[in-house]
């Protein structure tokens, strides 16, 4: 399947989401969505580079406007790992978490615990005003298998 075919299969659903939210379907919005979908957990700079393959004249300002708008609409998720600029993904609405390798920076999606989810039931002390938690944003940090293997290979 070519990259164009893969894009064209997603675009009708995205177009419908945009129209349902009262937004126009533009080349810029679709190019940004395509870029993020094919390069999840990307910075705005990476998204701009990828989207420019389709729209060479796309400006950085346009990408930032589209990112803000699509995030506000709930079509994109924005998250900020430590020591990193904001990252974007098209996987939304499922309260998943992220695991990041502290060596190479690789990021993996981690599904939320099914059943009892302690991350949604925090312990409140007497000086706090409890809230009804709707979403928990958990970031796991560790060392990925590739980095561990390389470390063992270098240490042998």
Architecture overview:
This protein is an alpha+beta fold. The protein is built from 5 helices and 5 strands, in the order ααααβββββα. It has helices at residues 3-20, 27-38, 44-51, 60-73, 145-155, and strands at residues 77-79, 87-89, 97-101, 107-110, 139-142. The strands form 2 sheets. It has a 3-stranded mixed sheet with strand order 4-3-5, with no helix packed on it. A two-stranded antiparallel sheet has the order 1-2. Strand 3 and strand 4 (107-110) form a beta hairpin. Helix 2 (27-38) packs across helix 3 (44-51) and helix 3 packs across helix 4. It starts with a helix and ends with a helix.
Keywords:
single chain, about 160 residues, alpha+beta, two-stranded antiparallel ribbon, 5 helices, 5 strands, disordered N terminus
């Amino acid at each position: 399947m070519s990259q164009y075919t893969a894009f064209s299969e997603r675009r009708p659903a995205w177009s419908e989401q945009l129209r349902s939210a009262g937004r126009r379907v533009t080349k810029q919005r679709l190019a940004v969505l395509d870029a993020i979908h094919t390069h999840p957990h990307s910075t705005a700079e990476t998204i701009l580079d990828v989207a420019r393959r389709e729209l060479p004249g796309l400006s950085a300002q346009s990408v930032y406007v589209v990112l803000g708008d699509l995030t506000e609409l709930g079509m994109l998720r924005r998250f900020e790992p430590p020591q990193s600029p904001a990252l974007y993904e098209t996987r939304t609405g499922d309260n998943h978490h992220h695991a990041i390798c502290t060596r190479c920076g690789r990021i993996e999606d981690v599904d939320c615990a099914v059943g009892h989810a302690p991350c949604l039931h925090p312990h409140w002390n007497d000086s706090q005003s409890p809230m009804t938690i709707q979403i928990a944003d958990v970031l796991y940090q560790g060392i990925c298998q590739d980095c561990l293997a390389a470390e063992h290979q270098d240490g042998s």
